[in-house]
Amino acid sequence: MSSADTIETTPNPEAAAPESTEHSHAHDHDHEPHHHGPSLNPECTREVQIEVAADEVSKAFRTVTRRYQKQARIPGFRAGKVPESLIRSRFADGLRQDVVETVLPTHFREAIDKAGLRPISQPQVTDLHLEDGQPLKFKAVFEILPEISVDGYQDVHVAKPDTELTDTELNAELDRVRDSRSTMEPVAEDRTLVDGDWAQITFRGEIKNESNEAETTEAAAQQPITGDDVMIEVGGQNTLPAFNEALRGSKPGQELKFEVSYPEDFGERRLAGKTISYDVEVKAIKKKIQPELTDEFAKELGEYEGIEDFKQKLKDHLASDKKRRLEGETRDKIVEALIAKYQFPVPESLVQQQVDARLDRGLRALAQQGMRTEDMRKLDFNRLRDAQHDSALNEVKGSLLLDRIADAEKIEVTDAEVDRELELLSLQMREPIETLRTRLTDDGGLARIREQIRREKTGGLLYQKLAS
């Protein structure tokens, strides 16, 4: 993750962000207190006490009650003719909730404006007292952005990376391209397998009995490990030593028996820590033939004029990718150094929003890998949230610092820059750009895009100033 792309749920000091587990800016314009919420950082927490006059409360009760009378459908009464007393008894909880939602927002906004406070979390209502004919009293608790000084940030320095592409890197990529288009050709001569050959084999493996009864039962229940016409490089660095030793010097038609003890951390779980007895038949010896770097080969790869054109475009792509990657890593190091340099309290609501965003990305990745929804529900989300907390905290701290430095450097984002990002998103999502713009404006996404672009520009400026 680059330094300019560190937090999805960005603080908006102009508004109270609603309690939400995702895209918390969807109602940034609301300032409406909620009755419950996440734990808050005491150093960033503020409280306002509010009292609403009894006559305004009574007026709200009458207005809400009349609305309920018009909508209520109760057997024995005509529509709109249900007695007010019955409405108040039957729908007491709903009436109270609607009165609170009618009265609270305006008075809360007035209270924070008067106090000069700018909430960035959804306010939590406590000590609510509501009775018809009496003043409405409540407290609202919320978080604000901390005071952050970035004085001296110019003193932070990190090593500037060498982003030049080397000939070794270019040649290695050319070899990978050739290897991807290589063919396997049979070896006609009568000889044994040597390093560099590819053995075409058929094999069957069985897990040896373990002394532990539970492991024996588990092993017996597993299907044999088999493979037909599998290609294995003799002496290859990715080939297990036991296979190299057994195959080296053997000939087609030969049958081999040997055992392989797999380490506990072996990548394939059913083999990890097991000893497998293999029966292997060598079917053929083959050589991998890589294509020559000719103009014809280049044209097979794409719309290239010839091999030199392909090499140049590959070099440009690799150089650009290396430069972007190393500069991104350096910007991350700069942000890490800034986080270490400045200590300040961080609103817990922003941290929890970032935990939500990280978990959301993780769950989407699991879903793409084929994990079923019912299996996801079995995950220990409390443990997962705890595990994400420290990383989320640093991401929020990094974003807040970038925002303050952007203020100090007077970095602005133009409408043209936002439009370019929208055009890319429109192509990626296959959604008409104006439809996308409207949707992102309504759910706060456009503001997040603008903030992300601003941070990216700030990260680029810091790279120019602080990397040396």
Automatic annotation (TrEMBL):
Belongs to the FKBP-type PPIase family. Tig subfamily. Its EC number is 5.2.1.8. The keyword Isomerase applies. SUPFAM superfamilies: FKBP-like, Triger factor/SurA peptide-binding domain-like, Trigger factor ribosome-binding domain. Residues 1-12 have a biased composition (Polar residues). One of its GO terms (molecular function) is protein folding chaperone. The gene is tig. Keywords: Cell cycle, Cell division, Chaperone, Cytoplasm, Isomerase, Rotamase. GO terms for biological process: 'de novo' cotranslational protein folding; cell division; protein transport; protein unfolding. HAMAP family: Trigger_factor_Tig (MF_00303). It comes from Alloacidobacterium dinghuense. Consists of 3 domains; the N-terminus binds the ribosome, the middle domain has PPIase activity, while the C-terminus has intrinsic chaperone activity on its own. It comes from the Bacteria. Gene3D superfamilies: 3.10.50.40, Trigger factor ribosome-binding domain, Trigger factor, C-terminal domain. This is Trigger factor. Residues 196-305 form the PPIase FKBP-type domain. Residues 20-35 have a biased composition (Basic and acidic residues). Pfam families: FKBP_C, Trigger_C, Trigger_N. Residues 1-47 are annotated as: Disordered. Involved in protein export. Acts as a chaperone by maintaining the newly synthesized protein in an open conformation. Functions as a peptidyl-prolyl cis-trans isomerase. It catalyses: [protein]-peptidylproline (omega=180) = [protein]-peptidylproline (omega=0).
